[in-house]
Amino acid sequence: SGSASLSRFRGALVAGVLGDCIGGEFEGAEEVPMESVLAHLSGLDDETKGNGVLEYSDDTAMARCVVQSLLTRTGFDEQDMARRFAKEYSASPGRGYGSGVIQVLKKLSCPRLSDVFQPARDQFNGRGSFGNGGAMRAAPFALAFSNATDVKRCARLGAMLTHSCSLGYNGAILQALAVHFSLQGGLEAPQQFINSLITEMEEVEDTDVARKDARILKEAEKPFCERLHRVKELMERSNVSIEEVISELGNGIAALHSVPTAIFCVLHCLKPLECLPQSYRGLERTIAYSLALGGDTDTIACMAGAIAGAHYGIESIPLSWIKCCEGAEDADRDAERLHALYHQM
Ligand code: 8NA
Ligand code: MG
Ligand code: MG
Q: Between 59 and which of 66, 69, 136, 195 could a Cys-Cys bridge form, CB atoms 3.0 to 4.6 Å apart?
């Protein structure tokens, strides 16, 4: 499909939901044998299993708020987005939110709150969260704005409503940029894709605040750039074990330990893999491989799914998967509206 085609928008938004719903099965598991992943995925083809049986979690719950806010306000409105996050949390608190972010979501529902970014700043003794909760809901920014500057600015502000540590919101920028480039056909040239992300993140991480946060957390001077260089090294290797991916990139709830991992999953699965069935196409490979890493599987599969879905398009997604995931059909409908917004702005 052509660059920024409707199929790519639908693929991105729907596959993000599928990654969350399908990945939920293994969230927090230390080791996930590939046989378990394949058994779980083939179970989705079972017609007797009814519609929408796999529920979405916080990842999709918050992404839906981002989508509805961007569509209703025809752009970024922090007051509106914050209100939607708070309302969604109070309506369905049991979606598997991170233990810290719950405090922010409760404070955001206070009608007297004057600065919607303040509750996030108060997290973790004023350091802010570096969790992947900003990145897990960042894909819609890439689907609403065609201009990279708008994508970066809005992904950052959207994340800062809950994640004020630079390692949290810069992870959201990286995820949004990966979807942005993928939407434009960037994954046709994988080396150039990763190089473009490094170039962008060199600039994004070139701030005093980012350098200070990295120093406090004993990370490299530009932590996301360092991780993207590791992605590049792993890409150049002919055989990479799951253990190496986990030790080099991580599979945890920090944005730094999950966004570069999701990007690697997409790149690694562009070609067939020996450990996966021949019948699998690119998107199926990407979701399966993300789950096999264990750890924060719903979020890594959600982020990898969005990037991969923007590349392969809606036609690459098995209909049986869409049918069994809560919110997948809503995402398909919303993608059409985001496509219209993107081409109008
Ligand atoms: P968050 O902001 O509460 O961050 C998640 C966790 O990261 C916190 O609870 C802390 O343990 C830790 N953390 C973040 N920032 C700091 C800091 N500055 N200092 C010390 N510790 C810190 O929530 P979030 O929205 O970022 O949540 C992200 C993940 O949590 C998502 O994957 C989501 O699905 C959820 N979740 C994950 C698991 C899992 O097992 N991986 C389980 C349930 C929920
Ligand atoms: Mg989740
Ligand atoms: Mg998660």
A: 136
